[in-house]
Each structure stands twice: as structure tokens, then as C-alpha cells.
Design brief:
Elements lengths: L1 E5 L4 H11 L4 E6 L10 H5 L4 E4 L7 H4 L4 E4 L6 H6 L1 H21 L4 E7 L22 H20 L4 E5 L1 E3 L8 H10 L4 E4 L4 E2 L1 E3 H13 L2 H4 L2 E5 L5 E2 H12 L5 E4 L15 H7 L7 H19 L6
Parallel strand pairs: 1-2, 1-4, 2-3, 4-5, 5-6, 6-11, 7-10, 8-13
Antiparallel strand pairs: 9-12
Helix pairs in contact: 1-8, 5-6, 7-10, 7-12, 10-12
């Protein structure tokens, strides 16, 4: 099959690219990151195993998506803090780009379009576990942009019959992850004996190792399109973990003597609890997480240790 991965140079997109190349699919990547900066898949595009389109989704055209059977969308401004400082940039990347993409699909619709949603769209005071139909309450500009992108995509599905599937995630972590994500920040600082700064601490997340997410995406790739068209699925572990528990587990696994320093909650974080109901994905797709927190953290810590040594890192985050 011909597959296009939007945002394929990032953490999740590059992981999916490397996995699907092994199964013999014809893969193209569209990403705003310059090819020379793409370490994780450099060997693939330099050997012409994948086609690399250096372009923003804000400028995507019908010709860019023509002829693809499956399109995965990882492209987004994915940082919550940047959503506070640059909300217009966040909206342009996450909402306006979706409109542009949907307009392209009106001319050349793929057989499947799989959008990477976010479990952050639910906000505080939700009954647990949170299922796909729970009311959404975006508590920050980033979450609002992801919620709006879902609304745009589903509206084009209902109005124009565009095939849409949404896969919502909790925190996804693992090798090659972005260093701005809380799991990475804690690991890096623990390895360097720097303080772990926690905003609040009792708020919770559903923290999912990256290969579990890639498993779910492969299941979506291989299932009949009529089964998933217009549907939303939660991809997580179904386990609630507090940020305090995450920090202490990382300190234990790294045998670090770093101190934990609590500061004020980030805006919108107080009373937020997250544990996603994965029963629909299990029943319809056969999704079952295989790697849980301690094992996933062990693997991720091992990778960061090697990266710190390779790069000679000495400063915390």
C-alpha cells in the first residue's frame, strides 16, 4: 500500500515509518523539519527507502496527497507550554492545517485517514476510566486546538464522507522521545542528579510506551476501513499514574539522589485525572498494551543513558 505519514520525522511518526518499511509498504513522509536534522530516519531517505517531502501541512496541496491509500497524521504543535505562549501558532498548526487537509481530501480522499488525537482534551473532574464519548473540556490552548481539530475532521466525515479515524493517546514515551515531555525531563534530570521540578504532583496521566501505540496503529492499518470509519478509539494502558508516582519511579530505576521540588500547578492542571478506557479498542481492534510503566521506563532510561554519553550532556531540563 502507498502510505503517507504527516509529521513522519517526529517521535511517533518516525517510529511508525521504521516499522512499516519492514513490512514492505511504499512510505512517504511529509514534515516541516529539514531532512538534514532528521536523525531517526536519515538512513531510510538517504537510501531512498522512503520519500521525504520537506513541507508544512499548512501548505499541503491536493497533489501532495494524491494516490495514497492510507494517511497517518502526526503533524502538530504538540507542546502544552508552547500553547500558552504561542496560542495563534498552535491554532494555525493544529486547526487551520486540518481544514486545509480536509479540503484536499474532498478532491483526493484516501481509503483511511488516521488522526493522532489527545487525551488532554477531557480536562478536570472526569469520571474514570474516560471513554470515547465522555464530554470534552479543554483546559488549555493546546488541548482546545486538538479538540477543534477533531471537530473539523469529523464534520468533513459527516458532510462529505471523508474517511476519518481518531486515535486518542495519553502521554506517549520511549526511545527517541522529545525532551520537553515530562517523562524525558524527569529521566534526564535524574541521570544528571538535577532536581525534578513537579508542577502540582497529584494530577494523573495514562502513560503509554510507544510500541503499544505503534501496535494500535498497525491494527488500524490492517482492519477493514468500514469498521473504523468515523470512529474514535483510545490507545493507552488503562492505568492511572500520578506525576509524583512517575517521578519517584524514575528516581528508583535510575538510583538517582535527585531532589523532588514541588511548585504551583500549571494552568488547568489542578484536579486533572486521566485514565483512558481502552475497552473499545480491545473489542474492535484487538488492542492490548504489552509494555507497562516500569518496563517502558527501564528501556527509555537505558536509551537516555546512551544518549547522554554520546552527546556529553551535563545540563538538566
Amino acid at each position: 500500500m502507498k502510505i503517507l505519514i504527516l509529521g513522519g520525522a517526529g517521535f511517533g511518526g518516525s517510529g511508525l515509518t521504521q516499522r512499516l518499511v519492514k513490512t514492505g509498504h511504499d512510505i512517504s513522509i511529509l514534515d516541516v523539519i529539514a531532512p538534514r536534522h532528521v536523525e531517526m530516519i536519515r538512513h531510510l531517505y538517504e537510501n531512498e527507502t522512503v520519500k521525504y517531502i520537506w513541507k508544512s501541512t499548512q501548505d499541503i496541496s491536493p497533489d501532495d496527497i494524491k494516490g495514497f491509500d492510507i494517511i497517518f497524521d502526526f503533524a502538530a504543535q504538540a507542546d502544552v507550554p508552547l500553547g500558552f505562549t504561542s496560542p495563534i501558532h498552535t491554532a494555525q498548526n493544529n486547526i487551520l492545517s486540518m481544514y486545509r487537509l480536509m479540503e484536499c481530501f474532498k478532491k483526493f480522499p484516501p481509503k483511511k485517514f488516521i488522526y493522532m488525537g489527545s487525551g488532554t482534551t477531557f480536562g478536570p473532574n472526569q469520571p474514570l476510566p474516560i471513554n470515547e464519548g465522555a464530554p470534552q473540556y479543554a483546559a488549555n490552548p493546546y488541548s482546545a486546538s486538538k479538540h477543534c481539530a477533531e471537530i473539523v475532521a469529523l464534520s468533513y466525515h459527516r458532510t462529505f464522507g471523508i474517511p476519518i479515524t481518531i486515535l486518542r493517546n495519553g502521554i506517549v514515551y520511549g526511545e527517541n522521545m522529545r525532551r520537553e515531555i515530562v517523562v524525558a525531563r524527569f529521566i534526564i534530570n535524574a541521570l544528571l542528579s538535577k532536581p525534578l521540578i513537579i508542577e502540582g504532583g497529584d494530577q494523573t496521566r495514562d502513560i503509554n510506551y510507544v510500541t503499544n501505540t505503534l501496535d494500535a496503529l498497525e491494527l488500524l492499518l490492517n482492519v477493514d476501513s468500514s469498521t473504523i470509519n468515523g470512529e474514535i478509539y483510545h490507545c493507552a494502558t488503562g492505568v492511572e499514574t500520578s506525576i509524583d508516582e512517575l517521578a519517584n519511579t524514575i528516581l528508583e530505576l535510575t538510583q538517582s539522589e535527585s531532589e523532588i521540588q514541588h511548585v504551583t500547578y500549571r494552568h488547568g492542571e489542578q484536579n486533572v485525572r486521566q485514565c483512558l478506557d481502552i475497552s473499545k479498542a480491545n473489542k474492535i481492534l484487538g488492542y492490548q498494551p504489552k509494555i507497562f510503566l516500569r518496563e517502558g521506563l527501564k528501556r527509555t532510561i537505558k536509551w537516555f543513558k546512551a544518549e547522554n554519553e554520546r552527546l556529553g550532556l551535563s545540563g538538566g531540563i
